[in-house]
């Protein structure tokens, strides 16, 4: 099948959360022309800090594609300083979430633009262009859709759970607040996609908030969808996912659990080499999915695109 | 005369603008016990930048008394970095006003507190305590009172005039917007003062906005008032004051012009050594008024207090 008009290349849409999603997005951006790729990014973990609107996943994706993200640390900017943070702590402000000095500019611009009436989509477009990011970067929604964590009778805001409490409280359920429409362009991009990639982000807190938006799941059911497993040899590359799966899905953490989580939406799966046997009912590509530098991300993206071409796409 | 209850020392109130006022305030804080000094600071140049509420004079006074201000530069913090500023410029935000990374924390805390419903007085109290400033620091008013500059048919906001246009447009008149009450404590402090000091700040843009608040001038008429001339040998120590006086007062810039500007409010004047002859109708102290380091500021403050004791105060 092909949704591309004649004369254009294949169109790829990737659904992304934070660092794993950002790195695969960076690889896809290197492997495709800019107009062939659209990134749809989770905003369920957006929150307000120091009076500023912080969008961690959007910024991680944006900084990564701008070449400004650290290769090691999963957030913020390479070479970042934290002088404002230290001063905030001295003034008694909450210091559990680190906003670097350069990063602060992004939140200041976003906050002010939103106050002036811009949408999150509009300010995201402005920010990514200013940072030289060539591909389309769409927040999943312009309206608020805060993810909350239910843990042993407590309800925690997402960042309180992940950062303040270091993801330690066991997750009994997740709630996605609000009922915003998908942001402008999201459904159109999905409808026009020759391939949809579910990036190796946490399915529960990064991908599900996007899938749960009105019309997204229905659009995906009509497109070829390939997921990259964020579980490698039974472990999460980063974050508390490996502890969440047994509690939320009643099975051990594995690439197979990821495949079952997405159910009939998926047409193919990319897993870490050695994990291929965990997916028996769909085309599966085993390769090195733990991404390092930019060339390694591009390598994975090219392998994924070639695999999708062989198995589920026609373009 | 004495407004001090028995057993307490003399009470001094200083009206201050930016750097000159901040340095004399720093000297007074060294020369007096903390409970004997109240600083009332101009807020006419407060403005919003990057969505943040910036109070340049309050912050200059606060940083100077906290020992955090540079000895040379008249604004900001010693050893300050400007990484957020550089990032703001990259994102297309206005970059003509420099907010340093550490300074940003002050504006973030202030802005957020004001949004949460705190008054400027309340957040100023919180900030000065967090920075270890022991003396009372009162904004002149909690409500907005923006100074605007009328120049050759144009109306400029104060910071546009001073910083963006570098104080170059000739000043035909000044307007003080709004009609807020003096902040809580301002009139009480003035009523209880054994001495009021008009710091060597620009009279037109730093001191007059305070004097023009309802009740302030009347309170000063009942107290001994000593001004320190910001004009030294016909020149302003800093800023465009020397160009403003001929245009606004139709006389050359001089310590005498400062004395005449304040008119019957004044009881005595401190001027630069050599300028004593310019004030003939009041007690005058000639000394070194251009302040350097903290000990030099304390030296001037002690000389001023001794002079006031000899001439206009009884305590």
List the helices and strands and how they pair.
2 copies of one chain form a homodimer.
Chain A: E1 12-16, H1 19-31, E2 37-41, E3 47-49, E4 52-54, H2 56-65, H3 83-90, H4 101-115, H5 120-130, E5 136-139, E6 147-151, E7 154-157, H6 158-164, E8 173-176, H7 186-191, E9 195-198, H8 203-211, H9 216-221, E10 225-228, E11 231-232, E12 235-236, H10 241-249, H11 255-262, E13 268-272, E14 284-287, H12 294-311
Parallel strand pairs in A: 1-2, 1-9, 2-5, 9-10, 10-13, 13-14
Antiparallel strand pairs in A: 3-4, 6-7, 6-8, 11-12
Helix pairs in contact in A: 1-2, 1-12, 4-5
Largest sheet of chain A: 7 strands, parallel
Order the strands across the largest sheet of chain A as they lie in space: 5-2-1-9-10-13-14
Mean pLDDT of chain A: 94
Order of helices and strands of chain A: EHEEEHHHHEEEHEHEHHEEEHHEEH
Total beta strand runs of chain A:
14
Beta percentage of chain A is 15-25%
Please report the first level of CATH classification, the CATH class of the domain at 12-45 and 138-311 in chain A.
Alpha Beta
> Structural class of the secondary elements of chain A?
alpha/beta
**Which shape of chain A, going by the Cα principal axes?**
globular
First and last CA, distance of chain A? 7 Å
- Architecture of the domain at 12-45 and 138-311 in chain A in CATH? 3-Layer(aba) Sandwich
- The number of helical segments of chain A is 12
Low-confidence residue ranges of chain A: 1-7
> How much helix is in the residues of chain A?
25-40%
User: Quick one: which chains have the greatest interface?
Assistant: A-B, 31 and 31 residues
CATH homologous superfamily grouping of the domain at 12-45 and 138-311 in chain A:
CofD-like domains
Q: What is the rounded Rg of chain A?
A: 19 Å
Report the oligomer. Answer: homodimer
